[in-house]
Each structure stands twice: as structure tokens, then as C-alpha cells.
Design brief:
The protein has helices spanning 9-20, 24-37, 69-72, 99-105, 155-158, 164-181, 205-213, 215-218, 262-272, 311-327; strands at residues 42-48, 54-59, 108-114, 121-127, 130-137, 142-148, 186-191, 194-198, 221-228, 231-238, 250-254, 257-259, 284-290, 295-296, 307-308. It is α+β, with helices and mostly antiparallel strands. It has two domains: 9-198, Heat Shock Protein 90 (2-Layer Sandwich); 218-327, Ribosomal Protein S5, domain 2 (2-Layer Sandwich), CATH 3.30.230.10. Helix 1 (9-20) crosses helix 4 (99-105) and helix 6 (164-181) runs antiparallel to helix 7 (205-213). The longest helix is centred in the middle third of the chain and has 18 residues, at 164-181. The structure holds adenosine-5'-diphosphate and magnesium ion. Adenosine-5'-diphosphate is lined by residues 30, 34-35, 38, 59, 61-64, 72, 77-80, 94-100, 143.
Length: 339
């Protein structure tokens, strides 16, 4: 048997990166969530080749102090929580302090950042987890990440990437969800030089829906705002006349996070049953506002699935909220022609 050895930090980070970073969309998710956590109200994302060769994320948030840039890239370094008790009332999107170290471990990453108070910005280059340079530079307030050549040093993982087109699709889906959960942030998404998405950041969810899904959907929405037992549901339902052939038009957010939830889908679809044909799925953008203690966000590193403490009650509340709304008399069972 070979001797037992503790792995060096670069290797540890590379392995850990596998938990967080599966594909370009995972990197975009982490960087955009950081931008939102930094208070940005404008975020531009640009990718080339599905994000495999380049991801650029630019925000106008608070920036990182020059003398904290290095530590931001250390594993388990975060400005967002201090202790495990904080986990029960997290308001920020990130909190594990794993993203930047993971991204840096498997790409060539460049960061340019400046806080409002600083006279100069900082440019930091780190490749495969190893620092290349750190220097002062002129920069606007905010932060820009340039992430190049995903998995250039992990061929085993590079093999599992799909075509640039498929990867770009994942990034686009992700940005749609992020825009729907943050109407107050203006998102701009460019893929291979082409504009794919632009939202105004005016805070109106309906306008974001319009930007993403177009006129027909935006003209056939029912607003919803329902509260019961500490659970508040807000957002929009599509009128039954605009039901769809698949589940891709069901968007759920819990305390601002996009989530997949078979339970919520089931409840929503059950509530639509009396109003639609079989094998049709509703359009919905539903935001669930719930006390942080009612949910466990710590279920999975990518934080897509989360667990409610009281699943059955949530099922019932969603059903009731949706079914009642669909029964309201003002609802005309006819498509409105957009003007
Ligand atoms: P986490 O988001 O879990 O704290 P990250 O590895 O994603 O961990 O980021 C580490 C730290 O770097 C953050 O806690 C934050 O202080 C800082 N940071 C990262 N991205 C940005 C950004 N776009 N603007 C300002 N600060 C940032
Ligand atoms: Mg983060």
C-alpha cells in the first residue's frame, strides 16, 4: 500500500470544484448570484461557445476591497455568514464560500474589481488555482469576471460537456430564472455576439415575463397574491387558454431562489385540472415567501432542490390559491388579443 498523504490545496480545490461546477451554467449561476448579493442592479453576461471558451460577468455592485481579493478565492471564505447559526436566516444567495475557489481551480480566471471608496481597482489573475498576478488598475465601480477555458486542466470533466449550443441553452434558462426572481435587476445576456435577453430592471415581474415570453403570454396572465399559515404566494398564472405542452413554463421561486419541486408542480397541475385539457401544463411564475426556518436550503450544493418542513400543507395552500384564482368570475375563458 502507498503511504497515506494529505492532498495539496490545488488538488483539493479541483476535486471540490466538481461539486459546484458541472458546466458553464454553473459558473454563470455562481457569478450572477454573487453580483446580486453585492447589490448590483445591472448585470451583463456574455458567453462564447456556450461559455466553454469564455464567460464574462460584469456587475455594478459593491466591489471587493483590494486587500480582500486574494482571500475571496480561498475555499470556505465568505463575507456572508459567520457561524452555523446564520444558516437558518440566510438572505443572500451564496453562503458556502466555495464558488470562487472552485471556478479558479478549473479555469483561467481574471477579476477586475473596484469599490466606490477605492481610488484604484484591482486586477487579479488566477489559473488552475494558482495566482498569476495581482495589480492595481483603473476600473469602474463594481466587478467583472472573465472566465476562460473551462476544465482546461481537467480533461476527464471536459469530456462531459455538451455541445456549445446545448451549454448556451442551459445558460439562457438559468438567466431567465434569475431575471424572473430579480425584476429589480437589469439583465443583459449575449451569446456569441448575439443579444439573447434584456430586462429593464424596473422591478415589475410582468415586464420581465413580457421580455422573456413575449406578448401573447404577457397579455394572458392572472396575478396572484395569497397568504395562509405563514406562506405567501405571489406572481402570475397563465390563463388556461395559454397552457403548454410541457412543464418548462412552470417557474417556482422560494425566497428568491429558483427551485424545482415536483410537489408544487403536482399541486399546480391538480388545481388546473378542471380548467384544461389533459396533458396540458400551466404557465406559472410563482414566488413563495416563507420564513427561513420553514425550509432547508442546505439540501444540495447547487441549491436547486429544497425541502419544506410541512410539505403537505404547502401542497394544500398552492392548490387552494391557484384553484380559487382560476374560479374568479373576472376570468374570461378566452384569449385576449394583445394590442
Ligand atoms: P459566497 O458567495 O458563498 O460568499 P464565493 O466564493 O462565491 O462565496 O465568494 C466569496 C466572497 O467574494 C463573497 O462572500 C463576497 O464577499 C466576494 N465576492 C464575490 N463576488 C463578488 C461580486 N461580484 N461583488 C462583490 N463581492 C464579491
Ligand atoms: Mg457565491
Amino acid at each position: 500500500m502507498p503511504h497515506i498523504q494529505v492532498l495539496d490545496q490545488v488538488t483539493i480545490d479541483k476535486i471540490a470544484a466538481g461539486e459546484v461546477i458541472e458546466r458553464p451554467a454553473s459558473i454563470v449561476k455562481e457569478l450572477v448570484e454573487n453580483a446580486v448579493d453585492a447589490g448590483a442592479d445591472s448585470v451583463t453576461v456574455e458567453i462564447r461557445d456556450g461559455g466553454i471558451s469564455l464567460i464574462r460577468v460584469m456587475d455594478n455592485g459593491c466591489g471587493i476591497e483590494g486587500d480582500e481579493v486574494r482571500s475571496a478565492f480561498l475555499r470556505h471564505s465568505t463575507s456572508k455568514i459567520r457561524s452555523v447559526e446564520d444558516l437558518t436566516h440566510i438572505s443572500s444567495l451564496g453562503f458556502r464560500g466555495e464558488a470562487l475557489s472552485s471556478i479558479a481551480a478549473v479555469t483561467r480566471t481574471e477579476l477586475i474589481t473596484k469599490t466606490e471608496d477605492a481610488q484604484f481597482g484591482t486586477r487579479y489573475v488566477i489559473e488552475g488555482g494558482k495566482e498569476v498576478s495581482l495589480e492595481e488598475t483603473g476600473a469602474p465601480n463594481g466587478t467583472t469576471f472573465l472566465v476562460r477555458q473551462l476544465f482546461y486542466n481537467v480533461p476527464a470533466r471536459r469530456k462531459f460537456l455538451k455541445t456549445p449550443m446545448t451549454e448556451a441553452g442551459h445558460v439562457q434558462d438559468l438567466l431567465m430564472h434569475l431575471s424572473l426572481s430579480h425584476p429589480e435587476v437589469s439583465f443583459h445576456f449575449i451569446s456569441n455576439g448575439q443579444e439573447k435577453l434584456r430586462t429593464s430592471g424596473n422591478g415589475k415581474l410582468k415586464d420581465v415575463i413580457y421580455s422573456i415570453y413575449g406578448r401573447e403570454v404577457a397579455a394572458n396572465l392572472l396575478d396572484i397574491d395569497y397568504e395562509k399559515g405563514g406562506l405567501r404566494i405571489t406572481g402570475y398564472l397563465g390563463k388556461p387558454v395559454i397552457t403548454r405542452g410541457n412543464r418548462n413554463f412552470e417557474n417556482f421561486f422560494v425566497n428568491g431562489r429558483y427551485v424545482k419541486s415536483p410537489m408544487i408542480s403536482k399541486s399546480l397541475e391538480d388545481a388546473y385540472k378542471d380548467f384544461t385539457m389533459q396533458h396540458k401544463f400551466p404557465f406559472a411564475v410563482l414566488h413563495f415567501h416563507v420564513n427561513g426556518e420553514e425550509i432547508d436550503v442546505n439540501v444540495h450544493p447547487t441549491k436547486m432542490e429544497l425541502r419544506f418542513q410541512r410539505q403537505q400543507e404547502v401542497y394544500g395552500t398552492v392548490y387552494e390559491a391557484v384553484h380559487r384564482r382560476l374560479l374568479e368570475p373576472e376570468l374570461i375563458q378566452k384569449a385576449e388579443v394583445p394590442d
